[in-house]
Amino acid sequence: MQPSGCENFMETNSSPPVRLFLPAALTLAILGWGSLSYLVIFTSPTGGTRWLFFFAAMLGITGLALPLVAFLNRRFPSVPAPTPPVIVRQAIWFGLYGLTLAWLRISRILTPSMALLLGIGLVIIEWLLRLREKSLWNPEP
After folding, report:
1. Three-class DSSP category at 65
2. pTM of the model
3. Which residues of 23-61 are buried (b: 16+ CB within 10 A; e: fewer)?
4. 36 alpha carbon, distance to own chain's centre
5. CA distance 105 to 85
6. What percent of the chain lies above the pLDDT cut of 90?
7. What is the chain's alpha carbon radius of gyration, rounded to the nearest angstrom?
8. What is d(CA 138, CA 136) in angstroms, rounded to the nearest whole number?
9. Is a pLDDT exceeding 80 seen at residue 110?
10. DSSP 3-state of 37
11. What is the rounded CA–CA span in Å between residue 27 and residue 47?
12. How far, in whole angstroms, is CA 89 from its chain's centroid?
């Protein structure tokens, strides 16, 4: 019997298909951008709504980044292949990056060099995490 792709992606030593992440990405994007638009249109920027702004922005950016990250991991394979938690973690890095840029921009201390260095720092952290996973990887005989 042929594997259908979603269930047996670990046996083929490739990353999971993009369609596996689409329901979660759609849910996150709708919740994040919907609540963000509600906050911008109907509320004033007080203490509580600012925290809701950051939370909604995190959900929205992560939801948009999830299919992109899954596609990039599928298009450019690595050894060991990334598991679904790794792909979600990488999408969360995008959300955290966007959230941090928004926070720094609101306080008016964001510069292009700071944004670049922050992005490079997050890429290095992910590279080190993947390097650790690679050192612990043990293929089945």
Report:
1. helix
2. 0.84
3. ebbeebbeebbebbeebeeeeeeeeeeeeebbbbbbbbb
4. 18
5. 30
6. 74
7. 18
8. 6
9. yes
10. helix
11. 26
12. 6
Report the distance separating Cα 135 and Cα 137, nearest Å: 6
More confident residue, 134 or 70: 70
pLDDT in tens, 20-46: 999 999 999 999 999 999 999 999 888
Reading the block at residue 131, the tokens are 């390097």
Kindly list the distances between the CA atom of residue 19 and the CA atoms of 7, 66, 89, in Å, as whole numbers in the listed order.
12, 11, 17
Of 49, 92, 48, whose CA–CA distance to 69 is shortest?
92
Query: What is the residue type of 95?
Result: G
Task: Read off the amino acid at residue 27.
Answer: T
Measured N-to-C along each axis, helices 22-42 and 47-75 cross at an angle, to the nearest 10 degrees, of 150
User: Between residues 134 and 95, which one has the greater pLDDT?
Assistant: 95
Question: What's the one-letter identity of residue 90?
Answer: Q
Computed from CA positions of residues 106, 108, 112, 116, in that sequence, does the dihedral angle turn out positive or negative? negative
Mean pLDDT for the chain overall: 89
